[in-house]
Amino acid sequence: MSDLSDLYQEVILDHNKRPRNFRTIESPSHHAEGYNPLCGDRLNLYVQVDGDRITDVAFEGSGCAISKASASLMTDELKGRTVTEARELFTRFHQVVTTPPDQPVEELGKLSVLAGVREFPVRVKCASLAWHTLKAALDREDSTTTE
Fold this sequence. Notes:
Strand order of the largest sheet: 1-2-3
Radius of gyration: 14 Å
Strand content: 15-25%
Oligomer: single chain
Shape: globular
């Protein structure tokens, strides 16, 4: 295994064991639930938006290492961004994890560690659950997201 692959695995395992922003936000301005019926991942996402800026974002739930690491990395990346920037990042991230493995992808900093799921299509839903839940929260959808 390459050093880069080892590093990616290490980052994912670290965020799974010690997820950042793993908590609730009392009275969030936006909230959504996510559920991946393929593997049972569940997620509650809490977002605090002031004006057009995300001032706080947190999650709770249970799931596989990829799902939890993705939510942890996402919440770190979103704090301080505008809602428009968050929506653009959702699109860019989704493109990275759904692009065929033999195609080049955009560099997304720390989020790039999740690009490896492209080689395992069944794991794409694990990596993207938090992101689809974010989109649902920002769109104020009331149903549970299963994307």
